[in-house]
Amino acid sequence: MQYSYQALADQLVQDMQAGRRPTGERLPSVREGAAAFGVSASTMVRCYRHLEAQGWVQARSKSGIFVADWRAQRAARPSVKVAAPVAAPAVAFEHFASLQQRMSELYSLTAQPLRMGLHLASAAADWYPVEALARMGQRVLRSNPRALGAYPTGTGLPEFKAALIPWLAALGLDVEPEGLLITNGSTEALAVALRAVAQPGDAVVVESPAYFGLLQMLENLGLKALEVPCVPEQGMSLEALEYALEHHSGIRAVVAMPNFQNPLGCAMPESHKRRLLKLVERFGVTLIEDDAFGDLCNQAQRPQPVKAWDRHGSVIYCGSFSKSLAPAFRVGWVVGGRHHARIASLKLSQSLVTPLFEQAVLAQYMQSGAFAPHLRKLRERLAANLPLVLAAVQRHFPLDCRVTSAGGWWLWVECAPGVDTLAVLRQAVGQGVAFTPGVLFSAMGKHGNCLRLNVAQPFGPEMEFALATVGSLLKRHSLVL
Amino acid sequence: MQYSYQALADQLVQDMQAGRRPTGERLPSVREGAAAFGVSASTMVRCYRHLEAQGWVQARSKSGIFVADWRAQRAARPSVKVAAPVAAPAVAFEHFASLQQRMSELYSLTAQPLRMGLHLASAAADWYPVEALARMGQRVLRSNPRALGAYPTGTGLPEFKAALIPWLAALGLDVEPEGLLITNGSTEALAVALRAVAQPGDAVVVESPAYFGLLQMLENLGLKALEVPCVPEQGMSLEALEYALEHHSGIRAVVAMPNFQNPLGCAMPESHKRRLLKLVERFGVTLIEDDAFGDLCNQAQRPQPVKAWDRHGSVIYCGSFSKSLAPAFRVGWVVGGRHHARIASLKLSQSLVTPLFEQAVLAQYMQSGAFAPHLRKLRERLAANLPLVLAAVQRHFPLDCRVTSAGGWWLWVECAPGVDTLAVLRQAVGQGVAFTPGVLFSAMGKHGNCLRLNVAQPFGPEMEFALATVGSLLKRHSLVL
């Protein structure tokens, strides 16, 4: 009989529940089991992973797979205490079919208190000018409390637009106030941009790996994601993009982060940016440029966005201060090119207007001239932090891991083929540590052996602990293979 | 030859441009023209309206229709100065095909400085506790500036949810924190609710007249609006709703404002609310209840929402503080019933999270116990204001206008059949006064002889002037008919 991994797992669970395989018994190794049950080694591995994830078995480093104390484990509440950092994960994990479910799992896994969460896009709170922003916020409230009672209208606070436009001009963007729409973060900017150019059923090209929030957004909008590979040194492969544009007629847009792509951190060289723009123009599709990380280079000179060369309104430019200046403010913007009127209408019927208080504070902050010095400092911190994190990764991670560190915000780690970083994450959260598993960065289930680490957190003992924890789990998982 | 109004208008324009009908010439009256050109009186009226809207002719009260100084008028820039309040509108108006365009026209008309704008949903800024909110905002910023640097996650600030839940409980809603999602105003709440239950091409029942933002939202989501008449004393006609549900198979949801409907202001009696719930349950459709005006009764006792009787999660409840407490904060919420998980996912991929600062301030405000006294005062103000506005409307408006004033926020005025309130608005803005024309409250172009007045502004000489202006324009338009 040819077992599927699930049928084999069910069989083993029945054996355990009936007492035929008691707690503590050593189970066959992958090689032995494959022979004994007449399955391939990879089916055997998937079976054990599944059982381990559900708490039925335990993999012990260097000694093998054992029947776990599953009665206790499965009875435990689905929460992990940091006070018991060595406890195995007590959550009964499901086998997840879709990206939505994988994302839900990430959210529920990381909802518990963690010693070190490297899974989010956040930097250390005190890397931001929080005192200055709070002071200016107090001033705004003191000087004009009546504004809180006014029903807001329009596409953004005029003072904020006036402060933002010179900043955008310095990046090479020629924007009028009417061509600029302030949004609830760049997430909303992306959402209205996509809705403006694509209808349900249309296809959109994304980078692979791609930011999982974008993939979820496409799924929720009924759009198909065509995943075009990203190369660390160059960003989206333009050869692959050209091939995709030639072979699919239903492509409406290309979504790309040419500056410090999430999760690879790579920046597209200027020559590639110009080629990318020509390519989308040749095929008559829109480029939606997500520049949320553009300011977060670990170099002194911030690279220009593709939008800087756009003369025909082919690029919808999305930006944000959520990463560079004020994470809690949720203020982003969109410069919609030839789609701007439609974008503004969609924003209006999606959330009316963006709160004005945050915009008033940001306007004051920019007018004060403090933004450029703040960014310089933030970039220096990122640049100083990265080598420390990289060295720790090299100390702790398996030797065959390939690390990409093109930007200053992320590390993208590619482990040996077959390593399941989602399974590793489930164990890591049991020890108070989280990262983002690679499988979240693809709607096709690619990148399962990769992981993303947020390195915009000051390096110290906690991060050392976190990286050591993840490294040792990765080594153990490599051994089981 | 049988002219259409457009062909007749084109013919008259040619005559004017060729000098055959010089500036200042009196044109035939409606009756004379109808006979002379062989058209019906209503075609003649539409023709003159169209020409007047485009600046070709001028209707002079009690004396007739004259060829305008169209060279000067049509050369003028499309802006209206308040400094010259008696000037005729200089905007070359288009004939509008869709609701989107009608809304754009309203926005551009009202973008200019106005003496009195009665077209928005705003109340007087000092009717809100702006000083207290500003003070609490300063305290929030002083006590925890670091929060501004933290990347927000989750479905709402826990403290705000904790303060909101007892408030909702007092309305009869049994809500857990996980079943409550904080949104960017009730606009976003409605948008994610609609996206959760309906796909492009589906039909959604709305009240008629309905809030134009809702109609625009449906249009932008590719949903069909089925307009079911609203009766001032009872809200949505349940007989008409039942008929619609029986005769259309593609209806996914009913969107209703059972408490103080926008624009009618009517409140559905409790017996009708129970019947409405039973009806949607019988047909297996979702009720999306917009309760944004629920707190704004001009009675002491606030009516319960339909959600209070919902035992099967059939009602998606949307609320907001934008009308009742803090207009500039843009904080709303949704209790999604059986659709809640899907709604939360859509919100996440639409705008990630709602800014936390505003929620922190609102949490403090509610904890302080000041909300109930504030609401009492706001209701008293609305209740005291309404009779003054009503009396002025009766003084100035044509006698055949029918006024609905069930709530305390709006007046809905139905003028004689044939009066085009959009044309009246174009002239009113020239005199610095705006209201909302009825045609915006229907995707089918109904209610063209109606208008909505915001009466949540303290009555005084400015409002008297505004109502006198609108009233005299309405009288003049009635005369032309």
TrEMBL record, chains A, B:
Gene3D superfamilies: Aspartate Aminotransferase, domain 1, Type I PLP-dependent aspartate aminotransferase-like (Major domain), Winged helix-like DNA-binding domain superfamily/Winged helix DNA-binding domain. One of its GO terms (molecular function) is DNA binding. The keyword Lipid metabolism does not apply. It holds the Pfam family Aminotran_1_2. InterPro entries: Aminotransferase_I/II_large (IPR004839), HTH_trans_reg/aminotransferase (IPR051446), PyrdxlP-dep_Trfase (IPR015424), PyrdxlP-dep_Trfase_major (IPR015421), PyrdxlP-dep_Trfase_small (IPR015422), Tscrpt_reg_HTH_GntR (IPR000524), WH-like_DNA-bd_sf (IPR036388), WH_DNA-bd_sf (IPR036390). It comes from Rhodoferax saidenbachensis. Residues 2-70 form the HTH gntR-type domain. This is DNA-binding transcriptional MocR family regulator.
